[in-house]
From TrEMBL:
Residue ranges of the TM segments: 26-45, 76-97, 109-131, 138-161, 173-195, 207-224, 236-259, 279-300
Annotated source species: Bradyrhizobium commune
Name recorded for this polypeptide: Na+-dependent transporter
Entry keyword set: Membrane, Transmembrane, Transmembrane helix
Length: 335
């Protein structure tokens, strides 16, 4: 390659490498930048589906195949985690909304909570788990299985708890989910075949940087009106934001405790996955035809989604170091 072209390509690669090296700090900054520049929301909103495709493609592309096969040979954990995130979570949320009367008193908020609970895990969850040093492969495998069954579970819980507030076509939703998975997997497989797993691993920082840019596109697309909502009714917006944080960390804590027997490091990885729901797919499935309160809640969930990895990284590193130390003691070297 001529030196001029090498220089031309080196500049953006250096920029992506720097961005990727910022790790969870950059992920946390994404949400504040998206909030500070509202016009980006209208500009980037048409590209939500492409952003979801890109996030999942990166996740597939970077998966550790050996670890993937190991998880598939022992499917009980993946099956249990899948059942919890696709059946347990929406069932509990739906029952709470019904018993407390939230569906009648605040239908827009109830709809938001149900759509959140019915959604599959967020496509970026494996990449965020990797940034935190957690088991990204376990997250990815569970993400794939959960996404595969969500068309059926979402339709079931919509009929049980939404009482006609939303009409979701299981066939349409299923085709969209399967199409996104198939295209992302095909693209990731092609990239791995063309460049090889070793090259992907060597270029981890710029790939991380590119992943953060895609996260920024998605966050900006759904947060375009948040600043206006805070100005119009700050008390209500702050209350919705507090609820978004409470739901996120409740799901994280409960999941981590439920799966603590597999080790807190892996349990935290599953907790991260379960607390990060793929609201983008629900927006795509409903064509964005949602009440204002539902939109506001969806937008404000971006704060815990982007801030939590930064906040939890020190805990994740301690848990990973403890797990590594335990493994080293259990399997001492022979030298």
């Amino acid at each position: 390659m001529p030196s001029g072209l090498r220089t031309l390509f080196a500049i953006p690669v250096r920029g992506l490498t720097w961005l990727g090296s910022q790790g969870t700090r950059a992920v946390a900054a994404v949400v504040f930048i998206a909030l500070a520049v509202p016009p980006l929301g209208a500009l980037l909103r048409p590209y939500v589906t492409e952003a979801i495709l890109g996030l999942l493609c990166i996740s597939f592309m970077r998966v550790d195949l050996a670890a993937l096969y190991s998880h598939l040979r022992r499917p009980a954990l993946v099956a249990t985690a899948t059942a919890w995130t696709t059946i347990g979570v929406p069932l509990i949320v739906g029952l709470i909304a019904h018993v407390t009367g939230l569906t009648d008193r605040a239908p827009g908020l109830s709809l938001a909570l149900m759509l959140q609970s019915m959604a599959s895990p967020m496509m970026a969850a494996p990449a965020l788990a990797a940034l935190m040093g957690l088991d990204a492969t376990l997250v990815l495998v569970t993400l794939v299985t959960a996404t595969a069954v969500v068309p059926f579970t979402a339709s079931l819980f919509a009929s049980l708890f939404l009482n006609g507030m939303l009409s979701i076509s299981p066939l349409t939703l299923g085709l969209k989910l399967l199409g996104i998975l198939a295209v992302s997997l095909l693209a990731a497989t092609t990239i791995r075949w063309l460049f090889g797993a070793d090259a992907i691993q060597r270029h981890k920082p710029p790939i991380d940087g590119f992943n953060i840019i895609i996260l920024f596109i998605f966050a900006s697309a759904i947060m375009g009106d948040v600043a206006h909502d805070f100005v119009a009714d700050p008390g209500f917006a702050i209350g919705i934001a507090a609820l978004a944080f409470a739901v996120y960390f409740t799901l994280l804590a409960v999941t981590t405790l439920l799966f603590r027997r597999i080790g807190y490091e892996r349990a935290l990885a599953l907790g991260l996955m379960v607390s990060q729901r793929n609201l983008g797919l629900m927006l795509a499935a409903t064509a964005g035809a949602l009440p204002p309160t539902t939109w506001l809640y969806f937008a404000l969930t971006q704060f815990p989604i982007h801030l939590a990895p930064y906040m939890l990284t020190p805990i994740a590193r301690r848990l990973t170091a403890r797990a590594d130390a335990t493994s080293a003691v259990a399997t001492p070297g022979t030298g």
